[in-house]
């Protein structure tokens, strides 16, 4: 019964798909004349990541700077390609002389490898990580690789959502990396989530403990589900007229209020280039932040904490160690990064170079990668700030 449904779904997908949806990332890039390379990065704890590089633009401009683009939770490096050229951030920066690198955290589609563990066979061990490990292992390994590969002394950093969380943790816990960051742009910084205005997030965090026990009973540590490409293909086939409005409503349900800034036509591309697997522990860690009101390491309970941290409580992240210039882009209505969270965050950060509260009403969490006017609202001020720090190099 299930197999015919899948076959029919896939046929609908092939008949109705937008031409770009059928393309792989490399085919998509080649269509518009942009080269893309895959680079293998091995972390200190054995995960094998794939970083993707756009070494230059088809306009022939030789890159003089390096930028690393880091995705949010449930996303992947290709998030920065969704809008296509010239407006998606990866293309926008490449066209302006940047050597662009797309980060893919452990567990995402291109980074599901380990030196000894298999993501399907060794689920409990492979998926035993949160954004803490992404910050302490994945990002430093990727930055070290980029610096060695390009010969650059420093690079620029752009992170969205979890990509901001992991940036701040990395610079807090490994402060010497501050010297390798020319400037960082944090899009929707997700730190003090206890100040969220979303009752849905607050309620969900209270159920996290129960959810964690249930998932553990089924040996289920990956979300949305193990081997999720089939789910993505089903979603791609369903998010078409007349269902595309419903899919867009779901996008807004996740990201906050309805801004009206996302074109329905890009929803299939957002599903193709936007969704990837995560460890359930990543969600539970955010839930702990919401409930405790503290930005701290993962809480394993008193006994677990004693074993892990030699203390009954997990340590706080030391945000005052973040010395690199930070640009904050945020919205009042974003459930994951609102103005109240930013006011608290700015108390801890010693070097805020730009404080950019979005002026448009109802700007939501996913607008930072999907909005049709990203170029004017985010990319241009981000680029101008980076130019300032380029001139100082």
TrEMBL record:
Keywords (A to Z) from UniProt: Glycoprotein, Hydrolase, Lipid degradation, Lipid metabolism, Signal
Signal sequence extent: 1-17
Protein's name in the database: Lipase
Partial AB-hydrolase lipase domain ranges (all copies): 26-82
Annotated family: Belongs to the AB hydrolase superfamily. Lipase family.
Annotated catalytic residues: 161, 334, 365
Molecular function, one GO term: hydrolase activity, acting on ester bonds
Biological processes annotated in GO: lipid catabolic process
Pfam name, any one: Abhydro_lipase
């Amino acid at each position: 019964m299930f197999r015919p449904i899948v076959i029919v779904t896939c046929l609908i997908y092939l008949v109705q798909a937008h031409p770009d949806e059928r393309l792989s990332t490399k085919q998509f890039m080649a269509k518009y004349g942009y080269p893309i390379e895959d680079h293998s990065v091995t972390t200190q704890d054995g995960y094998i990541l794939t970083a993707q590089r756009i070494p230059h633009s088809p306009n022939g401009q030789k890159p003089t700077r390096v930028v690393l683009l880091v995705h949010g939770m449930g996303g992947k490096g290709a998030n920065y390609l969704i809008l296509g050229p010239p407006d998606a951030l990866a293309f926008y920066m490449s066209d302006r002389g940047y050597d662009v690198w797309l980060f893919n955290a452990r567990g995402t589609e291109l980074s599901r490898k380990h030196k000894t563990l298999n993501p399907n066979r060794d689920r409990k061990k492979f998926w035993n990580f949160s954004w803490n490990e992404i910050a302490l292992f994945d990002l430093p390994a990727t930055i070290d690789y980029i610096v060695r590969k390009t010969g650059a002394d420093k690079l620029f950093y752009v992170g969205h959502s979890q990509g901001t969380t992991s940036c701040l943790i990395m610079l807090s816990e490994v402060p010497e990396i501050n010297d390798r960051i020319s400037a960082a742009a944090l899009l929707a910084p997700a730190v003090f989530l206890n100040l969220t205005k979303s009752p849905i997030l607050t309620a969900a965090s209270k159920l996290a403990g129960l959810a964690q026990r249930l998932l553990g009973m089924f040996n289920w540590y990956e979300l949305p589900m193990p081997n999720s490409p089939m789910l993505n293909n089903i979603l791609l086939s369903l998010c078409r007229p007349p269902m595309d409005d419903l899919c867009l409503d779901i996008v807004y349900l996740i990201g906050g209020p309805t801004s009206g800034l996302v074109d329905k036509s890009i929803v299939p591309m957002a599903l193709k280039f936007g969704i990837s697997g995560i460890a359930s522990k990543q969600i539970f860690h955010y839930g702990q932040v919401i409930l405790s009101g503290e930005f701290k390491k993962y809480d394993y309970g008193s006994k677990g904490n004693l074993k892990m941290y030699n203390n009954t409580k997990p340590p706080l992240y030391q945000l005052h160690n973040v010395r690199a210039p930070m640009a904050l882009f945020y919205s009042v209505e974003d459930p994951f990064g609102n103005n109240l969270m930013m006011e608290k965050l700015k108390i801890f950060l010693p070097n805020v170079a730009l404080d950019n509260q979005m002026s448009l009403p109802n700007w939501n969490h996913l607008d930072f990668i999907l909005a049709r006017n990203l170029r004017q609202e985010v990319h241009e001020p981000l680029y101008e700030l980076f130019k300032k720090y380029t001139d100082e190099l």
